[in-house]
């Protein structure tokens, strides 16, 4: 393997391709979560599918970081590449964390509002996906970031309402513990999309 | 807008001014939280006030990071500026997270000790405020950092005592869940002041 | 003190020595935790011992970061040194967080499986220790990282099983809250070993 040559003459495009692949995969994870919540049957099988998507995400992140560490000249700031890749991966990790908790907590029925919250995540990963696809040309990057921020606020409002309802209505403390955590983890997944948007905005400003 | 000129000839002072404004605003948030806990009435109105302060904080942080990304020469390490601004903002986010949970959890009465914990946060944000005001001259920076560390230890002790009491005395698991989280979130807010102190110390050492 | 000379002619070895000392100390903490769980008596005394180890860790981390901020030329990337030291310290902080919660929650009897989870942490800190000891020569660094990753997966599986069992078997919600958190905090300690491995891998790749 011509390692040194690779280092001196990196294919810059590879980063953009890997970012696109990573973002598409995250969106795939959110799509599978919404599908699971809207078709709540064969739960273990559907959750396993999300776990498989998450493993693919780990590999893509690993490939990207390995390439980063072996590359001298990067298309934009090394630190931002690292940060962007990690934050995108966080979204998928948390999507998987929600799915796996449905099995671990032995959840039989999805609470009202929870699929709505997952659909906000799905809209947000769709914006992340579009933004990442336009990262090289930086077309409309800021518009996607603004929309991700708006969705995060919407997710925040919905999750607060759901938590307040839980404390108001749920008399079984064990059910309360389960759903409080499920809502919180899903909300953090949406938050992480905003972290992605913040890195994208920084990249955009630096290269303006 | 003379963007390029702005980039080449940055007003370095702007960073120090924005840091001071950010720290004053964080202290304002902690002041409002202590006021709320000491005068526990019109809760929703007082919590809204803290939310407004938090929004101002978001804008100040955004301004600072935008300026950072548009500036070539920074008064100290780019990474430390970013880190400092983020950590200071975290303190306010968590202050707001405490306040909003009082509404979400429908808390009618403040538990003994909780206002004391908030007063430790207030003392700590006061030190952060003073340190940030002296950032440019680096007067007494280390003394403020040492005091912030001392306050963090005090907060840690108090919150551990409160959690132990909760598990010992509170028989209603739902109340336990609420107050365990309120104490933990407030303690993390105090922790984040220590993170601010750590960045300040690093900045001070590098420029010694 | 010949500060400037120190800055220009750093003893590079000092970093490797401090990293080794830090990793040995983290391993000491995990060893003390396993001992506590396997010999669950004189709990407060044993927990205090772990707290003392954690304080030593804080001092070692502080020394390392102070040296870093005073050094111009570092043996590898400044950012990676900072990151590595922080992540290693996180492992010990979380080990201490587990131990102190046993006192705060007034735990009288250790639940089945919990000592097994702590033994996974111990195996993992042993790998961290060996990797750090070989950091300068980079002997077998990747093998240690692979083993740390494998242990993290094992810890993840065990902690998920334990949480599922808790929700299945534990009828007392207060006990459930205590043990859910104990398992989660211990699992995060194991996760942090994987974060250490990731930084080690990055360092290894950059210097390959």
Question: In a nutshell, what does this entry contain?
Answer:
The structure is a homotrimer of 208-residue chains. Chain A has 208 residues and is mainly α.
Features:
Methane Monooxygenase Hydroxylase, Chain G, domain 1, mainly alpha, homotrimer
How is the topology of this model organized?
3 copies of one chain form a homotrimer.
Chain A: H1 3-8, H2 13-38, H3 43-69, H4 78-104, H5 114-133, H6 141-169, H7 173-206
Helix pairs in contact in A: 2-3, 2-4, 2-5, 3-4, 4-7, 5-6, 5-7, 6-7
CATH class of chain A: Mainly Alpha
**What would the CATH topology of chain A be?**
Methane Monooxygenase Hydroxylase, Chain G, domain 1
| Beta-strand percentage range of chain A | under 5%
Chain pair with largest interface: A-B, 15 and 15 residues
- Described by its quaternary structure, the protein is homotrimer
Q: How many beta-strand runs of chain A?
A: 0
N-to-C series of helices and strands of chain A: HHHHHHH
Estimate the mean pLDDT confidence of chain A: 92
CATH architecture label name of chain A: Up-down Bundle
Structural class of chain A: mainly alpha
């Amino acid at each position: 393997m011509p390692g040194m040559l690779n280092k001196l003459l990196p294919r810059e495009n590879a980063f953009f391709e890997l970012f696109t692949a990573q973002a598409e995969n995250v969106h795939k994870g959110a799509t599978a979560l919404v599908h699971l919540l809207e078709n709540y049957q064969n739960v273990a099988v559907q959750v396993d599918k999300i776990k498989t998507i998450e493993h693919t995400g780990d590999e893509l992140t690993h490939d990207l970081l390995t390439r980063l560490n072996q590359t001298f000249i990067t298309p934009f700031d090394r630190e931002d590449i690292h940060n962007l890749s990690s934050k995108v991966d966080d979204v998928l990790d948390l999507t998987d964390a929600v799915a796996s908790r449905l099995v671990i907590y032995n959840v039989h029925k999805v609470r009202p509002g929870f699929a709505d919250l997952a659909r906000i995540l799905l809209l947000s990963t769709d914006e992340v996906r579009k933004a990442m696809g336009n990262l090289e040309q930086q077309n409309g990057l800021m518009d996607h970031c603004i929309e991700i921020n708006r969705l995060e606020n919407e997710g925040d409002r919905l999750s607060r309402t759901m938590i307040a309802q839980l404390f108001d209505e749920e008399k079984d403390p064990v059910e309360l513990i389960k759903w409080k955590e499920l809502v919180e983890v899903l909300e953090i997944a949406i938050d992480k999309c905003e972290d992605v948007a913040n890195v994208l905005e920084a990249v955009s400003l630096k290269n303006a």
